[in-house]
Amino acid sequence: MSWLVTGGAGYIGAHVVRALASAGIDPVVIDDLSSGHAGFVPEGVPFVQGTILDRELLVETLRTHAVTGVIHVAGFKYAGVSVTRPLHTYEQNVDATRVVLQAMADAGVHNIVFSSSAAVYGTPDVDLVTEDLPKRPASPYGESKLIGEWLLRDQAIATADSEHPLRHTSLRYFNVVGSADPAVYDTSPHNLFPIVFEKLLAGDVPQINGEDYATPDGTNVRDYVHVGDIAAAHVVAAQRLAAGEHVEAAYNLGSQNGLSVREIMDAMARVTGIPFTPKSGPRRAGDPDRIVATGDLAARDLEWQNRYTVDEMVRTGWEARRAAL
């Protein structure tokens, strides 16, 4: 059994690839390397360099490797930047998902795990987000992920009476951090952990973007979940789909315990041993005050667990980044 991981040379995708291999599932990677790194793909894993907007390339890849299903991780994942680049965001997240689904139909592949986002909820006014909460995305990124879920839903409805209906699930998560392999680390210029790491390595002072949010310490509160836990949930979802077992249309991979940016900064200083007082900067467009999700359904069906403390999240991410120096 083999599964295609779109974006498998990226930070999250590369962890999914390793988790699949550890579970005895043969991974195949397609990535255009716009943000991924060929060196993140383990030796021996088939790697196709190309865009998932290329339907013919996708169909060829699916058929050549006798793919059982797709774990669709590739996408443009930056909520703040999506406000200024909405068309690019829709191309990479909506157009590309449509092409992936068309290629799957052409190649006779009927299982897909979609990397969605807690950004589909926007700025909820509840303490804990559950899957049935109304979807009110606050950025083009969140909107694009919600549309991706709709595409999966509609294709499943359209193929429901066919010999091989589309089976799918979407995994919604927000801030993925840490590392489960010292060879893979987050290289995003927009995510909090790598931003802080790069500042500290350069001898600079990290910055908090906005200290006037409606939260206890004024900095925004998020779910921070470890990439190793995220990857493991993708694998269990793929296994359930391939086995014909029941899955929900969507799962939150939430921590149930939000952390503020200031709390993260405190952990950064504590774990790295580099004391600093963060600078204060302006808010980023599209950032809600708080979003913290439950993981109850995922715990029930996908063996979802939060196995790492905040200090362990920082430590594993920091060690992986330093290993690349």
Automatic annotation (TrEMBL):
Cofactor(s) essential for the protein: NAD(+)
Keyword Membrane among record annotations: no
Assigned EC number: 5.1.3.2
Top-level division of the source organism's lineage: Bacteria
Pathway annotation: Carbohydrate metabolism; galactose metabolism
SUPFAM superfamilies linked: NAD(P)-binding Rossmann-fold domains
Signal peptide: none
Gene3D superfamilies for this protein: NAD(P)-binding Rossmann-like Domain, UDP-galactose 4-epimerase, domain 1
One term of GO molecular function: UDP-glucose 4-epimerase activity
A family per Pfam: Epimerase
Keywords: Carbohydrate metabolism, Isomerase, NAD
Reaction equation(s) it catalyzes: UDP-alpha-D-glucose = UDP-alpha-D-galactose
Domain named NAD-dependent epimerase/dehydratase: residues: 3-254
Family named by the database record: Belongs to the NAD(P)-dependent epimerase/dehydratase family.
Protein name (record): UDP-glucose 4-epimerase
Organism whose genome encodes this protein: Microbacterium memoriense
Gene name linked to the record: galE
